[in-house]
Amino acid sequence: MISFSSFYQQIADSNLQHWLETLPSILGKWQREHKHGNLPKWEKVLNKLHYPVPDQVDFIDSVTIGSGEQLSPGEKEKLENLLRLFMPWRKGPFHIHGIHIDTEWRSDWKWDRVKQHISPLKNRTVLDVGCGSGYHMWRMLGAGAKRVVGIDPSPLFLCQFEAVKRLAGTHHPVHLLPLGIEELPPLDAFDTVFSMGVLYHRRSPIDHLLQLRDQLRTGGELVLETLVIDGDENAVLVPEDRYGKMNNVWFIPSVAALMLWLKKCDFTDIRCVDTDITALEEQRRTDWMPNESLVEYLDPTDMTKTVEGYSAPKRATIIAVKNQPNQDLLG
Ligand SMILES: C[S@@+](CC[C@H](N)C(=O)[O-])C[C@H]1O[C@@H](n2cnc3c(N)ncnc32)[C@H](O)[C@@H]1O
């Protein structure tokens, strides 16, 4: 069974200490209630991942674990077969003992767009909300973060993360907890909070912004990346049904609207640092994710539109700082 006890030990004398009042009971409930589905099968695979400490790791320019020289061709094939049991792999890529996990998303491209604009992560305590398989968490560690905590309710992403961590070395201060943002108490503790690719999945985006704010220390930095549309501060798309075949998209604001929402939630120093139309090369079907991908979500006769006729996915990265609490918002 996946254990969170080393995380509890590591935060016992940190500024996340007060999380221990509620976290063990929430995760204990998760462990008791997630006995169904594929989790037991994936946990068995995780228990087979006993491999040598990697002779090299790189989290600065990529996520690379092991030079590829430590395993025999037969051992490499066996490891690849085990890792394929966690398909589909969506967020990556990972290079593990010479095995290239070519994921659906080039998450490294997103990191390249974001990293140049954020406050240096050196010695910072970081929260990655909706972290997926944890790809960006390894890059945050590579950028010098003291501790990286990711939350994501998907059991498959947890298992993919655990697989990578077991191969990288369990001592790395990177942790994924199977939680939704709504399950976190206001921790007021993180130096940087990332929410990338999550806001449009939330039914109440303003509440999402307030929940993110609650996790930051005063003066801490929010890095928000989300789908946007063109338009002024009153422009918000609420798809009637699906958007790009996704059935869980609620609000896609314009950059101006999003900046207004952040201001209303009492963030300061709000700046949009990047906008980008998602390229077909960034999100695509691969050998490790053989299902439909972006090309099937777009209108084949006009790739500037989704199959539903909305604007094709465009993303913005916005950075903002947590201001002193505003009493009006606390009520
Ligand atoms: C589009 S993915 C983004 C992954 C990654 N952050 C990235 O930018 O590539 C959205 C992620 O949010 C997670 N998610 C969904 N609901 C959530 C919630 N309530 N709290 C935290 N994460 C959530 C999903 O499981 C999924 O992994």
TrEMBL record:
Entry's EC annotation: 2.5.1.-
Catalyzed reactions: carboxy-S-adenosyl-L-methionine + 5-hydroxyuridine(34) in tRNA = 5-carboxymethoxyuridine(34) in tRNA + S-adenosyl-L-homocysteine + H(+)
Quaternary state and interactors: Homotetramer.
Role, per record: Catalyzes carboxymethyl transfer from carboxy-S-adenosyl-L-methionine (Cx-SAM) to 5-hydroxyuridine (ho5U) to form 5-carboxymethoxyuridine (cmo5U) at position 34 in tRNAs.
Keyword tRNA processing set for record: yes
Gene name of the encoded protein: cmoB
Keywords assigned by UniProt, alphabetized: Transferase, tRNA processing
Family: Belongs to the class I-like SAM-binding methyltransferase superfamily. CmoB family.
Superkingdom of origin: Bacteria
Amino-acid positions noted as binding carboxy-S-adenosyl-L-methionine in the UniProt annotation, renumbered to this chain: K91, W105, K110, G130, D152, P153, S154, I181, E182, M196, Y200, R315
Protein name: tRNA U34 carboxymethyltransferase
